[in-house]
Structures are given as structure tokens and as C-alpha cells.
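Q: My labmate handed me this sequence with no annotations at all. I'd like to see what the chain might look like in three dimensions before we decide whether it's worth expressing. Could you predict it?
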Amino acid sequence: MKKYFLQLISLLLFLTAAEILILGDRYFNWILGVPCFFLLLGSLVYFVMRKIADNKQFLTYFLVLVFAKMLLCIVAVALYLIFIKTEKTIFAISFFVNYVVFTIFETYIFLNINKSVSSGK
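A: Here is what I predict for the chain of 121 residues:
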């Protein structure tokens, strides 16, 4: 569990630093909010997936969680675009990049969790 959170926080710091370096002085005021959103969401998904890792329906639950996460992210982006109305393009691109990177990371981690539980480790 510690290893997962260290990797998750490292990824968060790397993405945030990369965004600040790439965007320079054009970064938006909520730049830390996006990675923190994914840190909280990733933590929640991790705890749910750990509880169902030995379930025979792991793949079904995993796909449902990925779909629910995608819907939640769409709602978060829509709310930002409706209410904040500043730096829309930069926010949307940043959010999308974070979503893709964190989803790839979570998929890799959860498939390893399922594999280790299935093999009895």
C-alpha cells in the first residue's frame, strides 16, 4: 500500500512540475487542483479495488469503476467550464493529460494487484 501511494504522489509531483515548466507563466490558478483531484480519486479507487481484488468479478468491477471515474471527471470538467470560465483550453488539456496518465497508472497497478491475489501471493 505504501508503494502505491509513493508512486501515486511521485506521479502527481512529476505531472505538476511538467505542467508548470511547459505552461510557464500561462498556468492557471487551479493547477494544483487537478493532480490533487486525481490523488483523492485514485486513493478512493485503490481502496475499493483492494477490497474486491480476490472477487471473481474483478474485471467487471474494475470496468465499472473506470466508467464511474470517467463520468465523474466529465462532470468536474463541465463544472469548471461552466462556473470558472477562465483558461478553459489549458484546464481541459491539463485535465485530459492527467486523466490519461493516472488511468494508465491505475490500470497497471490494479492488474498487478489482481495477478498477485490470483496467484496467491
